[in-house]
Amino acid sequence: MDKVISVDGTEIAYDTFGSGPGLVLVAGALTARSYYGPRAEVLAESFTVITYDRRGRGDSGDQPSYAVERELEDLEAVRAATAASYGYADSSGAMVLLRAVAAGSAFDKLAIMEPPFRVEGAPPAPDRYLERLQEFVAAGNPGGALELFMVEAVGQPKDQVDGMKASPYWPELESIAHTLVYDALQLGDSEVPVGLLASIEQPTLALHSTASPEWLQRAVRAAAEAMPDSSVVALEGSFHEVPPEVLTPVLRQHFLG
């Protein structure tokens, strides 16, 4: 593990795997860099893979107040420290990558996997979602924030989530539940950010799983349509997930040709 100091003094922890052109992986909600271990090992055959803990997660630091811009600075600090050329992001992490590039982060090519933009056919956004997340966090109730996210935002059955509460990894999720607020702020109103996407000139690969809901696949296509240089690829996978052995050759082709 290495650390880099972001603009506001926050320590951001990262790991590197393999050799070759640098590829930074940007995680979505409730995910620390350890999630990317199996994927990084496969990708490391072609890239120097960089996985990092977004602020407030894992071994990275945090600050009492949060602003969207701070995570863009964190990502750029990691990119600059590793001289990475490429960026890949999952789910809500795509907004961190896209915002960072729009703000000038020097990635040459991008890939995004299922940013959860709420297009036609998507489930309605939970009522007062951001405010309720903030209220749970302020009240010291991370479990409430997790349940709100999983049940109302993602759509998992409540009884399934109740069962998760007895699992050994629930406390770990609670420890980073406050970062759900960060992801909500990154996504904003969750509409496709057409203006921001139109400003991104880097070649971008927009990916979705064939097993994800149609509205989420449609969101990927809508994002790609808003970008000047993009393509859409559907990959065999499960809900909101594609296995490393399926993802890797597609990323290798996109980034390395």
Task: Write up what this structure looks like.
With 257 residues, this protein is α/β, with parallel strands linked by helices. The protein has 2 domains: 187 residues, Alpha/Beta hydrolase fold, catalytic domain (Rossmann fold, 3-Layer(aba) Sandwich), CATH 3.40.50; 56 residues, no CATH class. The protein has 11 helices and 8 strands. Strands 1-2-4-3-5-6-7-8 form an 8-stranded mixed sheet, sandwiched between helices. It is globular. The two termini are 30 Å apart. The model has no long low-confidence stretch (mean pLDDT 96).
Task: Describe, in short, the structure shown.
The chain is α/β, with parallel strands linked by helices and 257 residues long. It has helices spanning 37-43, 68-82, 93-102, 129-138, 142-154, 158-164, 170-175, 179-187, 194-198, 214-225, 244-256, and strands at residues 2-5, 11-17, 22-26, 48-52, 86-90, 109-113, 204-209, 230-235. α1 (37-43) crosses α11, α2 (68-82) crosses α3 and α4 runs antiparallel to α5 (142-154).
